[in-house]
TrEMBL record:
<dbReference type="InterPro" id="IPR048806">
    <property type="entry name" value="ZPBP1/2_N"/>
</dbReference>
<dbReference type="GO" id="GO:0001675">
    <property type="term" value="P:acrosome assembly"/>
</dbReference>
<keyword id="KW-0968">Cytoplasmic vesicle</keyword>
<dbReference type="GO" id="GO:0001669">
    <property type="term" value="C:acrosomal vesicle"/>
</dbReference>
<keyword id="KW-0964">Secreted</keyword>
<keyword id="KW-0325">Glycoprotein</keyword>
<dbReference type="InterPro" id="IPR010857">
    <property type="entry name" value="Sp38-bd"/>
</dbReference>
<feature type="region of interest" description="Disordered">
    <location>
        <begin position="1"/>
        <end position="25"/>
    </location>
</feature>
<protein>
    <submittedName>
        <fullName>Zona pellucida binding protein</fullName>
    </submittedName>
</protein>
<dbReference type="Pfam" id="PF07354">
    <property type="entry name" value="Sp38"/>
</dbReference>
<dbReference type="InterPro" id="IPR048805">
    <property type="entry name" value="ZPBP1/2_C"/>
</dbReference>
<dbReference type="GO" id="GO:0005576">
    <property type="term" value="C:extracellular region"/>
</dbReference>
<dbReference type="Pfam" id="PF20626">
    <property type="entry name" value="EGF_Sp38_C"/>
</dbReference>
<dbReference type="GO" id="GO:0002199">
    <property type="term" value="C:zona pellucida receptor complex"/>
</dbReference>
<feature type="domain" description="Zona-pellucida-binding protein 1/2 N-terminal">
    <location>
        <begin position="127"/>
        <end position="222"/>
    </location>
</feature>
<comment type="similarity">
    <text>Belongs to the zona pellucida-binding protein Sp38 family.</text>
</comment>
<feature type="compositionally biased region" description="Polar residues">
    <location>
        <begin position="1"/>
        <end position="11"/>
    </location>
</feature>
Length: 409
């Protein structure tokens, strides 16, 4: 499963309530004012009481029976939306939004390495690195050099040796063809290692037999389990207020509900409250809210995804679009409601997103060591290991196997 360090929302996603609109705990009440001509920042509390206009959409945390800050606008409804009702408003707004024009599908360049047409030749000067996606068919590893590839060879004889001994053509996992090519049908992590080909041939009928030895280092690799990390800022209640915590939980519930059908999950990375001095609005309290959206591993790493729609990149891209539209709708939809300015609200324009790669335990990304597969999570070589979901293999001289998850002694 793709997870990220940090606390995760422990409460279930919000559902539409049946019956009355009664709720337990703090209520979140949407309120708006007119947007400024050119975006604005969060005002100070004195501006809140006067209801000055700023950019953004707002959610106010109120204790049961507590009156909202500022006076209600004449004719405004006296009802207070419950957290569940607010979630319904936001989700309905998303459903009314037009479909995304397209989505980002960032795939590693290594996706081209497993094409059947790819053929790899050896070198007499150094071992050649070969990368095979886990559980996939390998490219053809030829038992010739580039010079000999297009040369006639008289009475060639091929013999392959792998990490566990001699390979024969009848092997079900590693096939040796009649022309000496090595092909892996379904590559496993434990099959990584050094493979040596011994070639005997005559350049011409009259010449004597020549011998050639070619070495290949074959690595299993997996595509990175990437995730998106988002940061957003909210105008907040005083930093020691319990209403900030209640708001945080409700926000995580709404975001989790958005991506649930895409087999993705939201994880809280951190949520910090700080006092920020603004140029014209004085001191104000702000929540710096950071969370991740990651794909849930439906295959559990056992087999590759065969259905195009279940690819993690596709599902995560859709989840990213939903989250971005969610914050846009906080400005566009709730911004039209004629209500007083609340205490907690999203500060328009503060949403930021970054792409983060990570690898399975026992795998790592190393551009210097694997320049032919720069975005691959390549199995850790002997002398290195990766104990958890991370990016790089760590050095360990006691590790003697490929794919080590611990620094063995």
């Amino acid at each position: 499963m793709c997870t990220q360090a940090g606390s995760q929302a422990s409460t279930p996603p919000a559902h539409h309530p049946s019956g009355s609109g009664a709720s337990v705990g703090p209520s979140f009440r949407p309120a708006v004012c007119q947007l400024p001509a050119a975006g604005g920042r969060a005002p100070g509390n004195d501006l809140l009481r006067r209801g000055s206009a700023v950019g953004g959409v707002w959610m106010e945390a109120l204790a049961p029976g507590r009156a909202p800050r500022g006076r209600r606008r004449a004719g405004a409804s006296g009802s207070v939306l419950s957290p569940l009702s607010l979630a319904a408003v936001l989700l309905c707004a998303l459903l009314r939004a037009p479909p995304a024009v397209g989505h980002l599908a960032r795939l590693p360049r290594s996706i081209h390495l497993t094409q059947d047409s790819l053929k790899i030749v050896g070198s007499t000067h150094f071992p050649v690195s070969v990368y095979v996606m886990l559980h996939q068919k390998s490219p053809h590893v030829l038992c010739v050099t580039q010079r000999l590839r297009n040369t006639e060879l008289v009475d060639p004889s091929f013999q392959w040796h792998g990490p566990k001994g001699k390979l024969v053509s009848e092997n079900t996992t590693a096939q040796v063809t009649s022309t000496g090519s090595l092909i892996f049908q379904s590559f496993e992590e434990t099959m990584s290692g050094v493979y040596t080909c011994f070639l005997e041939y005559k350049p011409t009928v009259e010449e004597s037999i020549k011998n050639l030895q070619l070495k290949y280092i074959v690595y299993a690799y997996r595509e990175p389990r990437f995730y998106y990390q988002f940061t957003a800022r909210y105008h907040a209640a005083p930093c020691n207020s319990i209403y900030n915590i209640s708001f945080e939980k409700k926000l995580l519930q709404i975001l989790s509900k958005l991506v649930l059908d895409l087999s993705c999950e939201i994880s809280l990375i951190k949520s910090e409250c700080h006092r920020v001095k603004m140029q014209r609005a004085g001191l104000q309290n702000e929540l710096f809210f950071t969370f991740s959206v990651a794909s849930i591993d439906t295959e559990k790493g056992s087999k590759p995804c065969t259905d195009h729609s279940c690819e993690a990149s596709k599902r995560l891209s859709k989840a990213k679009n939903l989250i971005e539209r969610f914050f846009i709708q906080q400005v566009e939809v709730l911004g039209k409601r004629a209500e007083p300015l609340p205490e907690i609200y999203y500060i328009e324009g503060t949403l930021q997103m970054v792409w983060v790669n990570r690898c399975f335990p026992g795998y790592g990304i190393n551009v210097l060591k694997h320049p032919k597969c720069p975005e691959c999570c390549v199995v850790c070589s002997p002398g290195s290991f990766n104990p958890r979901d991370g990016t790089h293999c760590l050095q360990c001289n006691n590790s003697l196997v490929y794919g080590a998850k611990t620094c063995m002694i």
